[in-house]
């Protein structure tokens, strides 16, 4: 049975919305990954104990919060064992088009380190090329 024109348009709009959401989610993930890339791996994020990088938090409802200090100087995962927290992944998975995605580092010295090292600013400068790359990748996967 042939779909009505209206049903065909609805399907197309739905696929486009899903594709836009996928590109947005992946692009945000890529910016966070780039900003979190340590100096030892070619990025700009300084690493001493790893607390700064580990303090990265996200939220869909407002500025994220979390621990601001590491008084015991506990070591955090090395470059090779680091992965984003599960809450960032969960927030990205539930984010829809039109939502505001908040991300930041809760370490008390995060702004000072960003000012000096520019890990977030330099990643954000690549936003358009990151989005463009993700659009190209999605189009290839969809055969467009």
Give a summary of the structure in a few sentences:
52% of the residues lie in helices and 6% in strands.
Write the layout of secondary structure elements.
Elements: H1 5-35, H2 51-54, E1 56-59, H3 86-94, E2 102-105, H4 110-117, H5 119-125, H6 127-142
Antiparallel strand pairs: 1-2
Helix pairs in contact: 1-5, 1-6
Task: State the distance separating the first and last CA atoms.
Answer: 25 Å
How does the major sheet shape up?
2 strands, antiparallel
- Count of the domains: 1
What's the average pLDDT?
86
Percent helix, as a range, is 40-55%
Shape label: elongated
Please indicate the percent range of residues in DSSP E strands (runs of 2 or more): 5-15%
- Given the helix and strand composition, which structural class is it? mainly alpha
The number of distinct β-strands equals 2
Enumerate how many helices there are, as a single number.
Answer: 6
Oligomer: single chain
Strand order of the largest sheet: 1-2
Rounded to an integer in angstroms, the radius of gyration calculated over CA atoms is 18 Å
Instruction: List low-pLDDT spans.
Output: none
Order of helices and strands: HHEHEHHH
